[in-house]
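Please go through this chain and its backbone structure tokens and walk me through the local backbone shapes. Keep your notes short.
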Amino acid sequence: MRITLIHNPGAGRQHAGDAAKLRKFLSDAGHEVRYQSAKEDGWKGALKKPAELVVVAGGDGTVAKVTRRMVGRGVPVGVLPSGTANNIARALGLLERPFEELVRGWERPRRVKLDVGIAAGPWGERYFVESVGAGLFAGLLASGSRKKLKKGKSPVESGLRRLREAAQRCEALEISAALDGRDISGRYLLLEAVNLPYVGPNLHLAHDSQPGDGQFDVVLVSEEQRGRLLYYLEHWQENRERLGMLPTRRGRRLQIEWTGFALHIDDKLQPKAKAKPKEIAGLVEARIDGDAVEFLLPA
């Protein structure tokens, strides 16, 4: 099979030498491989070249940015999860499976579609894979918090610790919003439209979410639920699927009256540092319109 391999050599515990190993590994499996580092110019152009499969070796950031570019291309995607959180691979059931098994699975695969949402606002339109939201996550991104990892702590554990600290002190936002035409306005510590069961540092926010189900889950955490959120962030290792049951509503179209508060679209923050006045406020809409990308999974 002709494969375009997009690889992030800095993901997880990888290093530059892994690029040659990956290319040899896929070539030995009988594939014709075109390699492109996700850290170098040219990865977008590489996706436009003829291929029967695009393979992404990296974490959520790399998988998501390739997925957004593959909408409408008609070429499936395979994932070799190599990051820290790996929320997308986790949602697709690809974790804790050896690369050999994943690669063999491309020969007679299951084909699963993953919805790709659209976030529209004063800045234009942008695809999203994980989530769109305001409050806790966006505030942490806006703060630029990047504390040094404590010895023995993983990036996921460190990320959850930062979230827990932020959740203790963050103020609720007054947000005017509607989901599929129903008013859901209120004061929220967290308002998050999530397209995957897991987001951020492996937070399990959408209990019933399934890839390609045509809807997202809007998680609504008010001041009254602060204790519930903190309890989850403090006990996530015990049973995060059970503990993560926060108030949610399902839908296809979320509209938010944006007044300039911090808002994130996947890992990108709005407003940008050099935003023009007309980009600071207006209607923001997150929607699922049928756009999807097909992933190859082992049968």
The mean pLDDT is 90. Residues 8 and 39 are 6 Å apart (CA to CA).
